[in-house]
Specification:
- The protein has about 325 residues and is of the alpha/beta class.
- The protein has a domain at about 215-319: Aspartate Aminotransferase, domain 1.
- The chain has helices spanning about 30-40, 60-65, 105-110, 170-190, 205-210, 215-230, 260-265, 280, 290-295, 305-319, and strands at about 25, 45-50, 65-70, 90-95, 115-120, 130-135, 145-150, 250-255, 295-300.
- Strands 1-7-6-5-4-2-3 form a seven-stranded mixed β-sheet, with helices on both faces.
- Helix 1 (about 30-40) runs parallel beside helix 2 (about 60-65).
- The chain is globular, with a radius of gyration of 20 Å.
Length: about 325
Amino acid sequence: MKSVGGYFEWEFPAKNGFPLHPEAVRLNSARYALEYILRGFAGLQKIWVPFFTCEVVLEPLRRLGIQWDLYHINDSLEIDSPIELHNGECIIYTNYYGIKDAYIPHLVEIYGNKLIVDNAQALYCAPIAKHQFYSPRKFVGMPDGGLAVTDVTCDVEKLPRGLSYERCSHLLKRIDLGASGAYGDFQKNDDSLSFETISLMSNLSSRIYESIDFKQVRVLRRENFEYIHERLGGSNKLNIPSMDSFACPLVYPYWSDRDSLKKELIEHKIFVATYWPNVFEWTKPVDLEYELANNVVCIPIDQRYCEKDMERIVKEIEK
């Protein structure tokens, strides 16, 4: 029975209309959204996974007893060599930095329903393939949550409802203490997801998700991305596709040979992530993926910032 009266909870007014991907199954994180998809594959024995990806992708494979093989990408962030899939095999492709939307239809033509698109970095990418999963918390302030868009069917009614209130400390502390003061909580809360089991997105995360103005988020991200690209595109070793070819980026990936650039930016309180530290263990220094993980600076361009912030970043890099 619904409670009436008493103290107030944290309010998240719902925006007009439904948030992104209304057809999605809402789960407790992107890794469990992948697991949801995999559970619907009949006779799946092996998955091809890129070297350049987050190691948490392997968690559902281990839980389900599915083997994997790793493949390389090229400097266009596309599959380096053709991969022939046999019976009982499928392939995961990562939509890197949210800028490879236009490449996915090409993969659909080749692999059909054996393709799973990792759109964890591409929340706004349309569900072009039969199977894809998303991570809203990489784009907005949520404690957890993932989306599975797929035509496989699983018994959703049997899944428990997740709980998220104990994973909000980093979101709250950042407001009062800043990014540095909350980073330990962020790591702790992120690590805790590995010890969960597949469940439906919590009521709290769903309320937050429904309260976001995703149209405005997209506008601001694209404006910031475009500003950075106009200023730094000429010195970027990474080939950035036309902005008309992707919906909304996660970051601006700036490929630089300056080994100290990440450290220098962090020292000036411009926090740039490394995607992904596990790549240094999976690959050799001569491999492209190793160089991408080491030298691509993921510049924040999200909705919290404006042109003035982008100008500050550019000036620090140009020093």
